Amino acid sequence: MFSALKPGLTLFAVSAIAALALSFTYMITEKPIEAQNAAAQERSRLELLPDADTFEEMDVTSARAVTSALKGKADGRTVGYVIGISVSGYGGVMDMLVGVDDGNAVTGVKIMNHSETPGLGANASQESFTDKYKGKTGPFTVTKSVASGENEIDAITSATITTTAVTDGVNAAVEFAAASARGDVGQ
């Protein structure tokens, strides 16, 4: 009878050891991963809003697609906002940070996390695409032909859904920044 249980017990023992090893590894790496993520967020904030020397967290409970917002300040005055956005792209949720200055112009877009198709929608995270928003105030629209207007964004070939998602997210960030500057939200 023991010979019939031996393969099951062996599998159980191997699984238990693997689970313990995995949980031990997680415990060891959890804090360094959190520190790396926090450092990446800080670098992105400073990259998106370089004029700010301090950041103040804002309330985002009523904002469309906005998951977080920081008011950037320098010498006590607001110089802009860094706004966290979460939108649905072709491959799933896309998380990004959008910088908007005090004149409501986009200072930059950084896609922090996405599951878009490599070589197609994933190209949305490249600077050659995200720089199309820089210096403009929106609202932005997506076009499948050559962009002719100031705020028209050329769709990435075969990735219109991704392009539209990023554009919707940038528009939501610009709207939030404008409303915050007016004192309507985020205070």
Main sheet: strand order? 1-2-3-4-5
Number of spatially distinct domains: 1
Q: What would the average pLDDT be, to the nearest integer?
A: 87
Summarize the helix and strand pattern as letters. HEEEEEHEEH
Structural class: alpha+beta
Beginning-to-end CA distance, first to last residue: 71 Å
The beta-strand count equals: 7
Shape designation: extended
Low-confidence stretches: none
Helix content: 25-40%
Biggest beta sheet attributes: 5 strands, antiparallel
Notable features of this structure?
187 residues, alpha+beta, five-stranded antiparallel beta sheet, two-stranded parallel ribbon, 40% helix
Condensed summary:
This protein is 40% helix and 26% strand. By secondary structure, the protein is an alpha+beta fold. The model has no long low-confidence stretch (mean pLDDT 87).
Describe the structure.
The longest helix is centred in the first third of the chain and has 47 residues, at 2-48. 32% of the residues are buried. By secondary structure, the chain is α+β, with helices and mostly antiparallel strands. It has one domain. It contains three helices and seven strands; from the N terminus they run H-E-E-E-E-E-H-E-E-H. A hairpin with a 4-residue loop joins strand 3 (77-88) and strand 4. The protein is 40% helix and 26% strand. Strands 1-2-3-4-5 form a five-stranded antiparallel beta sheet, with helices on both faces.
